[in-house]
Each structure stands twice: as C-alpha cells, then as structure tokens.
Amino acid sequence: MAQKILIDLEKLRSPLGHSCDESPPEGFCGFSSNSQGLKSIRELAVFQFTCRRCSEAPCIEVCPADALEKDDRGIISRSTNLCISCKSCVVICPFGTKMTDFFEYHRNKENYYDLSDEKELELWIRNSPQGAVTRVDMEEDPEQHIYKLSEHILVRERMWFTDKL
Ligand code: SF4
Ligand code: SF4
Fold it and tell me: Whole-structure pTM over 0.70, yes or no?
C-alpha cells in the first residue's frame, strides 16, 4: 500500500460528490459504524488546520466538562474521557469549525492514528465521500494546501492565514 492517506477536508464538508441515501444535518455522509477512527482523525485535522485558534476560545469557555484545552501553538484538543457530548462547543464556535458527529463517540483515537489496521483503513476509504480519503505517495505540499498531520496522514485544507504555524 502507499505509505500515506490524504484526507480532503473540503470534500468531507461538501454535500456534493458522494452518494448519501439521506443527508444528516451537517451534510455529511453517514459513515459506517466502523469508521469512528476516521472521525477521530478528522477531529484532529480540523483542530489543527481549520480551527481559527481564537485567543479567548469560546469553545473552551463554554465546555461544562473542562474537556477542551489549547496547547502552546493554540491547537485545541478534546479529552474523550471528560467530554459528555453536550455539543455546546459546536454551537458556540463562531466559525462552524466543529461538527456534531465528532462527539458521538468516546474512543481511543491512538488506535487509529497510525493506520496500522489495513482492514479498518479500507473501510474508511470505502465509506467516505468519493475522493475524500485516498492513498497517496507524496509529501506535504502547502502550494496544494496539503499539510502533514502525522507520519502517515496528510490533510488537504484551505487554511486561513496564521503566523502561529
Ligand atoms: S461536546 Fe464535549 S468538548 Fe464540547 S462542550 Fe460538550 S463536553 Fe465540552
Ligand atoms: S471557537 Fe471554534 S475557531 Fe475558535 S478556538 Fe474554538 S473551535 Fe477553534
């Protein structure tokens, strides 16, 4: 297999270009129950590449479970063992950064982050909107809006300008 996968966040957000039987509220395909790992990776990617890194982050302020925190680069992370899936942070984010389906599951994202389970990976790719998750053999390429999330995962996102990266 190619060494990496590329997740196109734009395609994942788009209600076009895939064949959902019905459209959930955010316009995403209903991923299979076996694709929780992809949701985990999407969450990490969105926090890293889509989130505007608000200095007074309202999502952190509103969280009743103290489940969100920011690192020294301003990147948000969520403690899945604390999160109660209330979705207050989704509602309050002024940029619509978070999607409610991130919060439907409490799971260990580390299991998926290295993509070591080939069967799971195949399921993610098959259950994703067409072209949203692909196997690639390439490096980070900011000119194409492609950034490195981890050793095995590239993410395509049109980032807002920041000097914090
Ligand atoms: S969904 Fe989770 S992270 Fe978001 S505000 Fe509620 S408890 Fe906090
Ligand atoms: S409110 Fe939204 S954009 Fe701002 S830090 Fe939280 S998730 Fe990011």
Answer: no
* DSSP code of residue 117: -
Ligand 2 atom index nearest CA of 52: 3
Q: Give CA–CA dist 112/120, Å, rounded.
A: 9
Render pLDDT for 74-122 as a digit per residue (tens, 0 to 9): 999 988 888 888 889 999 999 988 777 777 655 544 445 556 778 777 8
**How far away, in angstroms, is 121 Cα from ligand 2 center?**
29
100, 25 Cβ separation under 8 angstroms = yes
Q: In what order do the strands lie in the sheet with 133-136?
A: 133-136, 4-8, 153-156, 146-150
